[in-house]
């Protein structure tokens, strides 16, 4: 290899290294900026809501000097910029303060309740993906047919009907009238003192413990709220799958595949859906994140002991440390899932790597 070719190769490697470094730096700037924005929003929400955290701690009958001392201990007598600095420092160290309702550190409470929310959202997403993608493919392949119209109506109802109303209706029909599912809660009281949680995901824990009676009871409790969340997820996933598939089915490679005599099944599932799967990753990730942050009403209706119910109870008892801590955790998970989906999209789509 000549010296000129060596210099050109070195130059290309140097430019590529610069491009990777710029991409990583841009990624980090986006992460930091987004997270600081989340912290700023939660901080100012905590300051503008008509709830005095001092009153929530000492009560409205406490003497004035006690309230002033507690306010000073909490740093609420400082200027806002100093309060924000203290707030960010505490959040970055995992300190969200102490819950007024439970008297535990907020992070301890979140570690206890968050697995229940993740399990519910995960089962709901699995249901949404398992039914949403095939329905979306069916609607795209039979565009304009009765099947397409039915799928679109199913999606429209999933978007339009309030999920808490569906939850109440589901409890009335499938629990109270038909008895097909268990009632509110996560596990029957019979198993509360015999069942041993390991990971916090009760279905998985029941399998690890080989406690099949508890597994059936846990499944009977989770299937109805997870199905409702899955229906909400299905509405979004089926709609986007239909859109992506319609775009792929009009591409030239589909025409070429049909000209080669490939079966319609192979063209649809082996070629069109395979290419549509790349943007679908982002859709599924956003759906999962949406279920994590949008399960508050579902958990309230089904008395599901997750983060949504924890935030609701904390808000009703003016426990702002718990409310803001739970909000930050959900926001952080949402940001992380979005960034992960973006990374996976870039890894799986060669066109984005080429840019």
UniProtKB/TrEMBL annotation:
<feature type="transmembrane region" description="Helical">
    <location>
        <begin position="120"/>
        <end position="141"/>
    </location>
</feature>
<keyword id="KW-0812">Transmembrane</keyword>
<feature type="domain" description="ABC transmembrane type-1">
    <location>
        <begin position="114"/>
        <end position="345"/>
    </location>
</feature>
<feature type="transmembrane region" description="Helical">
    <location>
        <begin position="153"/>
        <end position="176"/>
    </location>
</feature>
<keyword id="KW-1003">Cell membrane</keyword>
<feature type="transmembrane region" description="Helical">
    <location>
        <begin position="272"/>
        <end position="291"/>
    </location>
</feature>
<feature type="transmembrane region" description="Helical">
    <location>
        <begin position="20"/>
        <end position="45"/>
    </location>
</feature>
<keyword id="KW-0813">Transport</keyword>
<dbReference type="Pfam" id="PF00528">
    <property type="entry name" value="BPD_transp_1"/>
</dbReference>
<feature type="transmembrane region" description="Helical">
    <location>
        <begin position="218"/>
        <end position="237"/>
    </location>
</feature>
<dbReference type="InterPro" id="IPR000515">
    <property type="entry name" value="MetI-like"/>
</dbReference>
<comment type="similarity">
    <text>Belongs to the binding-protein-dependent transport system permease family.</text>
</comment>
<feature type="transmembrane region" description="Helical">
    <location>
        <begin position="322"/>
        <end position="345"/>
    </location>
</feature>
<keyword id="KW-0472">Membrane</keyword>
<keyword id="KW-1133">Transmembrane helix</keyword>
<dbReference type="Pfam" id="PF19300">
    <property type="entry name" value="BPD_transp_1_N"/>
</dbReference>
<dbReference type="GO" id="GO:0005886">
    <property type="term" value="C:plasma membrane"/>
</dbReference>
<dbReference type="GO" id="GO:0071916">
    <property type="term" value="F:dipeptide transmembrane transporter activity"/>
</dbReference>
<protein>
    <submittedName>
        <fullName>Peptide ABC transporter permease</fullName>
    </submittedName>
</protein>
<dbReference type="InterPro" id="IPR045621">
    <property type="entry name" value="BPD_transp_1_N"/>
</dbReference>
<dbReference type="InterPro" id="IPR035906">
    <property type="entry name" value="MetI-like_sf"/>
</dbReference>
């Amino acid at each position: 290899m000549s010296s000129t070719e060596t210099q050109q190769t070195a130059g290309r490697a140097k430019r590529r290294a610069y491009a990777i470094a710029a991409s990583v730096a841009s990624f980090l700037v986006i992460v930091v900026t987004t997270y600081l924005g989340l912290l700023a929003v939660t901080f100012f929400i905590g300051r503008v809501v008509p709830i005095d955290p001092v009153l929530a701690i000492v009560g409205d009958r406490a003497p004035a000097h006690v309230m002033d001392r507690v306010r000073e201990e909490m740093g609420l007598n400082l200027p806002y910029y100093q309060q924000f600095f203290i707030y960010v420092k505490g959040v970055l160290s995992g300190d969200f303060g102490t819950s007024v309702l439970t008297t535990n550190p907020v992070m301890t409470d979140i570690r206890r309740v968050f697995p229940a929310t993740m399990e519910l959202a995960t089962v709901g997403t699995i249901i949404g993906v398992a039914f949403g993608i095939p329905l979306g493919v069916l609607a795209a392949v039979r565009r304009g047919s009765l099947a397409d119209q039915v799928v679109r109506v199913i999606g429209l109802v999933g978007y339009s009907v309030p999920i808490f109303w569906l939850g109440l209706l589901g409890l009335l029909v499938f629990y109270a009238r038909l008895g097909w599912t268990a009632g509110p809660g996560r596990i029957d009281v019979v198993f509360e003192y015999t069942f041993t949680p390991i990971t916090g995901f009760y279905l998985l824990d029941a399998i690890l413990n080989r406690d099949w009676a508890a597994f059936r009871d846990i499944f009977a409790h989770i299937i109805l709220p997870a199905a409702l969340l899955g229906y909400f997820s299905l509405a979004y996933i089926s709609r986007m799958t239909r859109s992506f598939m319609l775009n792929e089915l009009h591409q030239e490679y589909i025409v070429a595949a049909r000209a080669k005599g490939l079966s319609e099944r192979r063209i649809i599932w082996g070629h069109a859906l395979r290419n549509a799967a790349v943007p679908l990753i982002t859709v599924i990730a956003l759906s999962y994140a949406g279920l994590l942050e949008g399960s508050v009403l579902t958990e309230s209706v089904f008395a599901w002991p997750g983060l949504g119910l924890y935030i609701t109870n904390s808000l009703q008892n003016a426990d702002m440390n718990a409310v803001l801590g739970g909000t930050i955790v959900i926001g952080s998970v949402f940001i992380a899932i979005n960034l992960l989906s973006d990374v996976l999209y870039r890894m799986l789509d060669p066109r984005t790597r080429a840019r």
